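Here is an idea for our session: we take a single protein and study its fold together. To get us started, please write out a protein record for me. Once you have written the record down, we can walk along the chain together.
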Amino acid sequence: MSEEIPKDLAKALEAARYNEFVRISSTDEHGNKNDIVLLACLDEKNGGIQWINLMGGKYFTNPTTQFFRTKRWVFPMLNDVTRNEMYQKAIQSAVEKLKERVHNESESINRTCRVLDIGCGTGLLGMLAAKAFQETLKTYKVEVVAIEMAQEMASVATQTIQDNGLSDVINLVEGHSCELPPLSPKADLCVSELLESGLLGEGILPAVRDAWERHLQDDAIMIPQRARVFAQLVGCKEGGQNWLKDFFGPHNDKIAKCFGDGYRQPLRWSLNSSRSGLLLDARHVQIPVHAKKLFETNELISLTDAVPVFAFDFTSRDAAMIGIDGRRHSTAFSVKTQGTVTGVLLWWELDLWEDITYSCEPGKQPFQDHWHQCLQLLPGGNQMDAMPQDTISLKFSHNDERVLVEAIWKGVVVESEMNGDGYSALISPLRAYQLNDNTRLNVFKTALEYSLSAHPNGKAARILDISDGGWGACLAAVLGATNVISVESNSEELAIMAARIAQCGNGLPLTSNGSTAKFDVIPSHLENLTVSDLWGQFPDIIIADYYHVFEGWHLQESLNFYYKCRSLRRENMISDQTVFLPSSFRIMACVIESEQLRSAYSRCGDRDECILGLDHTHLNSTAGDFTRYDLSIPLFWQFDYKRLTDDFLMDSFEMGANTPLDGVRVGAMEQFKRTGQVDAVVFWIEYDFLKAGLSISTSGKPYPQLVRMLPNPSIYIEESDLKHAVVCIDFFYGGLSPPLTHDCDISINRMVPRGENYDN
């Protein structure tokens, strides 16, 4: 009898997405620590998620390497030269101040200066502090306690500290600073960088409060010292639609426009019969953005000046305690430009020292891809017309995790109580945008209507939805299909959501002429089903609309559908007449130049792989080869890039085909059409509904894109090269050792015409 999985482990496994892993640690009776690292991979046999153990056996992969591949922000942060230099200057200033303090002490001969580095990452800040003390207070001893809760990050930090000859100075402690015993003796200086795009999401407030309570001297110095959050009212481009509104909902009124009078009812995305149960409430949707790019392209329009809404002081125990229970207040904005307020742009400034401030204001710093601005949607997804000289007031609040916009109104500030209504977040903002896309909905709707009309059984055709959330099943039933089954294989939560949307939101199954249609939601892995579990017959139409586990990884999404359909073929669950929607997909590619990509996603440090003189070779060798794995770039559509080739086809896949399991290798060659530096290849998916003559692309706004970087320094294509220069890509998929789902070899070659020698 198998042991029951602990609830916390089961919850972690269910919450994990593709390419993420869960570490399970235990200690045996001898005190030896045993670790199992489970990685969520694509199951090439059955589709869906396959958990593999990275700690041994035939699937051995370095967990540390895999960890950094999932933490996409690490290299952009370490490649942020402005950030690094500002922290170095602030730390040096703090050490100079401590030098004055130490020299004034009566008993300073045997003085030890102590530093606390909270969330040390690779150890950079702690090493900068150690070096500064060694160079400034040469006759004094320095001790640094560097705390890091992620085991893989701590492993890299330990080796990096050793490589820089600082192991005798820096003591790395694995754990959470709030859960470790109090420091004794307490620290004179605390450095940390517990920051994310929204400022508070990594827990800087509770960490700083705890440090002052248990780890720091009363007169210790804290870096950073202060932070301020700014807000600015923005609108969408003049004459354009409010595209921000599509990031929550979905909106039943908008979706209803796809359905005319000939339908009994439109498709509804609601959790209750009143149609008011949103899957994603707008009040808690914050979208990271590169606002400078959006302003330049007029996707966003600035309607007001920026106004500070919250200030945080970390410099003392008393100051850090302000706002411990959260704060809320109202702020008035004076409109400068006519438009419609559709969102609030938030960013922050960080005072590292008295005259050293890092700002996330759009355009203030050179491009970086780790700290973004945040677009906060207005409560209820509302919008408000604004004229110059209008006063618009907003109510803001914050807790230890985030800053929120609670209310908006015209006129002067009027204090009111916080709205205590709950909110729902059953889907992501990206999925909401997808479900609000009527162009995409119309493609599926038209293809499904065509398939039903062309099938001998008409609307009685047996339809099987093998994706997440029952979207295709509900669409089919609303279009009049009377034999529909949705298989929910991902989680119990999604199965319940699918059932509520079907039964409560759409009133399924529908009745017609006194008979009730068949509509079932089956929570099961597809490979555990047989034909008898369905209708006792083969499905006539199979629909898939993947998004959940593989969200943001479009190639893996499409391969997942492909492997599931192939599994059904292998298990004799489909016939040669079964129709697939989509019927096929194509892997497309394009070579680009992008200095922004290159600056963020390359090996960190200078040519010697040093950051401010500190060796980071170990990190680069562990996870810095971006030519060997794909990056999923969420904000790719906001990057500056130049296409050096036309779009070209890598390979195409027919759903339901029974291809071998041992892998496929394909090749593609494309000639360069424009000059520029060859920085990366971008891959995306085109889904085809061949019989309906329609397709859907994942290449546009706002979808993440898969990017494979090319070696640095890269090749520059000159005007004289355009006649002969080509990119050659060997693409492999299937049959690779997990966690790899695919791989590719990319080279830039010279195409030699017949009769011409290569040397010419």
